[in-house]
Write a structure and sequence with these properties.
Elements (H helix, E strand, L loop, with lengths): L10 H15 L24 H17 L4 H13 L3 H14 L4 H13 L3 H9 L9 H13 L3 H14 L4 H13 L3 H12 L6 H13 L3 H8 L5 H18 L1 H16 L1
Length: 271
């Protein structure tokens, strides 16, 4: 899953996500993303309606309590908890089940992702490293390792994880979108834009991929195209507000010049 915002995210959190990426991209400081940024492993997406989601999670909790050693039940329950933002509880559920299933790589991967959502990044990195093996790498785990490295400010390392994930699953738009955002955070907007355009053209590209492209276009000063891209999935007034928020951040923090200077330096080194 690309670590950014979706249509179902509330306006304040979506606004915060926009500013987080903009500020981190200009090396003005990062901020913690308080939502599921790493996706789930082999677990069906929970309902989007809050009431239905809560009822669904309660049922999954009862199922998990009836068989606490069952890895599939624990992962499904944890996925629901994460969807509700109950990250610490998801970690506790998976931690107990991992202890009973230490060799279950999918379970260990889910545990690593829950740790990342809870902000326990070093522990998350360790768990994710144990969630696959060099001879059988898992593209989803690699992508999650990239997301954790990004949150830790290790953007070049994140790029290597994303690139490795794409070598395994080249048609996966979420992995390519994450790579594009990693380029943006390292102030390489031309590569970020190219990569996100490729991701957005994939048949399975979703709204998050397109909104990340809109974000990078806005950071590049291409406001009209950014707004047009954002309108594919958002109401016109909301798309305009998002682009205006990024533009305001750029002006107030001199973000655009810092990113452009960093991108130009990287392009010169590559040349």
């Amino acid at each position: 899953m690309p670590h950014a915002f979706a249509r179902t995210t509330s306006a304040p959190r979506r606004f915060a996500a926009l500013l987080c990426v903009a500020l981190a991209g200009a090396a003005l400081g990062g901020c913690k993303m308080t939502r599921d940024v790493t996706g789930s492993i082999n677990v069906a997406a929970p309902p989007s309606d809050p009431a239905k989601l809560h009822a669904h999670v309660e049922e999954l909790g009862r199922r998990h309590e009836s068989r606490p050693a069952d890895a599939a039940a624990a992962m499904a329950y944890a996925a629901g908890l994460r969807a509700e933002g109950r990250f610490a509880q998801a970690v506790a559920v998976l931690e107990q089940t991992v202890a009973k299933n230490p060799n279950n790589l999918s379970l260990t991967g889910a545990y690593g992702k829950a740790l990342a959502d809870a902000g326990r990044l070093k522990e998350a990195a360790g768990a994710l490293e144990r969630a696959h093996t060099p001879d059988r790498p898992n593209w989803s785990v690699l992508s999650s390792q990239g997301a954790v490295a990004d949150q830790m400010g290790q953007h070049e390392q994140a790029q290597r994880f994303y690139e490795a994930a794409l070598r395994i699953a080249p048609g996966e738009p979420s992995g390519r979108a994450n790579l594009g955002l990693a380029y943006a955070r390292s102030r390489d907007l031309p590569r970020a834009e190219t990569t996100l355009r490729q991701a957005s053209r994939a048949p399975r590209a979703d709204a998050r991929v397109r909104q990340n492209l809109a974000l990078v276009l806005a950071l590049s000063g291409k406001y009209a195209e950014a707004e047009e891209t954002a309108r594919r999935d958002l109401p016109p007034e909301e798309a305009a507000a998002n682009v205006a928020a990024i533009r305001k951040t750029i002006v107030e923090n001199d973000t655009w010049r810092k990113i452009q200077d960093g991108g130009a330096a990287k392009a010169k080194r590559r040349g």
